[in-house]
MFS transporter (Micromonospora carbonacea), 457 residues
Amino acid sequence: MTARERTPSSTRGADRWGAVVAVGITVFITGADMTIVGVALPTLGTDLGVGPTTVQWVVLGYALPLVALGLPLGRWADTMSKRQAFLLAVCGFGVASVLVAVADRLGTVVAARVMQGLFGALISALVLATIARSVRPQMMGRAVGVVAALGPLGAAVGPALGGALIEASGWRSVFLINVPICFVAGWLGLRSIPADDMGLALPRRSWLLDAILLGAGGTAFLLGLQAADPTRGTPILALSLLVLAIVVTAVWTRRPDARVALGMLADPLPRYWLIASCCGGAVTGTLGFLAPFHLTDGLRVSPTVAGLVLLALPAGMVAAAPFGGMIGDRWGHHRAGVLGTALVLTGTVALLGASGDWRAADLAWRLALVGAGTGLLAGPCQAAVMNAVSPDRGATAGAFSSLTLNLGFAIGPPLGVLTWRMGGGSPADIPAGYTTAVVTAALSLLAVCMVVVSRRA
């Protein structure tokens, strides 16, 4: 029986686009939260009397639950009503935002941010599963493409919106703005997400150990990449952390619940799509980190111009994502994936020719090309993964897809910095760091080509 034959009857009738809009709003607000908080950190640190090194825990407190809790929460969401789980996630995110806004010390802020990250991870796990229950399989690509455009749109809007809110009402308003948005998303979800006979369920205690192992492995892996520095000889700390990450992850893979998620990798179709997603995320993470330094330190442009140029990457994603879903639905997800990854590779290769004679526009159109390719890939990639699994594993598949994408985002910057340092480490050597983007873009294209080969086998 194919995945489409297993699709629940609730998606065989009229498509529920209100549900798609509801999850799209949550994707927008969580995407905006990732960037809007960065604008608030200096003011927040001054107000609470802490320095930059300490205040970074406001970001880490949100990011770590996304890595540690995504898969366990996906397994939990598969045992519950998607509508009730969505309402729980949205309400929890809104309440946590209020707790951050009213906090009067850093410890309370970080604790509330961890709570925000927990519900943000649950939202991420539910997005694809909710869409799969709300639209027909032949519309899945278009629905995912629309939602996929809203994440980068939120990330692009975040800094400007955050600056305006802070100037008008202080840093606490950056978190309070989440409340009315969560209310609208919850109201739409209540009216539009298909109901079922399942209710809410308590999470299993065994999932706590899964979360600890995933959190420890992910944290060790990311810290190990950041500690790697070829200019300082043998990076003992980096190697130790990476070994620790491998050991902890190996222990997790032997857990019973891990086999449910890893079972997706036994099927070549979702396996190669997930690899393509992870590599695509690494491209975006690399360019998102290196391009600002290239503009300000290498090309010597003003911060205003740099900000406008950096909008080219998410703008390309936003513009192309709906078309990627449409192409995937009409002519096959694999065709849209090949086109998208080919554009990403073309854009990254074009970046290797960067020189001191470049203008800001020379970098902008290349970033826009990479963004357009990423947008074309997003909808077909995630839709293909969801169509390859049974509906009762939808949230687990969604969480796994989100985890691989976020892992790519996370590993991109340290790998880009590593190749930059190997190239010399000066502002003029920043284009050497783009080699990481080229390699990961090529791997993403190769993975999608393997999808084509697997379909013909």
Observations:
- The chain has three domains: 15-194, 204-255, 261-456.
